[in-house]
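Session log. Operator J.P. requested a structure for one protein chain; no other inputs attached. Running the standard single-chain path with token output.
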Amino acid sequence: MKLVRWGKPGKEKPGIIDSDGKIRDLSGVVPDIGGATLSPMALARIAKAKREKLPLVRGKPRFGPCVGHVPNFYAIGLNYADHAAETGAAIPAEPILFNKATSCIMGPNDEVMIPKGSKKTDWEVELAIVIGSRASYVTQKEAMEVIAGFCICNDVSEREFQIERGGQWMKGKGCPTFGPIGPWLVTKDEIKDVQKLSMWLDLNGERVQNGSTKTMIFGVKHIVSYMSQFMELLPGDVITTGTPPGVGLGMKPQRFLKPGDVMRVGIEGLGEQKQLVTAWHA
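Structure written below.
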């Protein structure tokens, strides 16, 4: 299933994509896409709903973040061997964990704003895991059982804030609009092999990132199992899992986002995002 949230910011409704690629309203089946709605039982109830009889959403409404009311927004750093190489970083012995602020989450096609004082705002196409069940101390064999599905995340990052300003990476990762997720949450049954998905990011029509989840250092099952040794993962948690090479930080000379730039972000089987970059205007 491809599950969506559609409508104006803060007023999104749940939906599902039908066989014609149109949105069907799920408001009569579930209250939202997130939290308890992502449990195996709730997803089974959605799957049983006859899509062709659900109300058709007319026009072209805005896609909101594909998961609502996210409890935690986690991220994995330097998780692609080819990306680590382009930045000159050593291969991590264990997954590098950090947080992105949940307040940075936005719709897949909403504007990305460059923060005040920013000189080095960068892009990162990433596969995101969406947790469906509470998870503590799960094994890698059990990991897929607690996953509801997957989506695209553009892990927008301010490199000066992240690297040069001291402290943790989160300062450069959680600025407003730095977490587009969607357009839809694809349930895990639709993904044949999550470790063999092509992924890309185009900047102003130029393909700058062109990679695959097969070069992840720590795969999806490893990440979920590993994280569950240190914290309880909750339904609706989003874990964005790292980026392939082609980020602005790794270019020679380095290249960063500026107002007017347009990013297109895609992952095989998970759809595509499009964001216009603007100056700060909150």
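Operator note: The mean pLDDT is 96.
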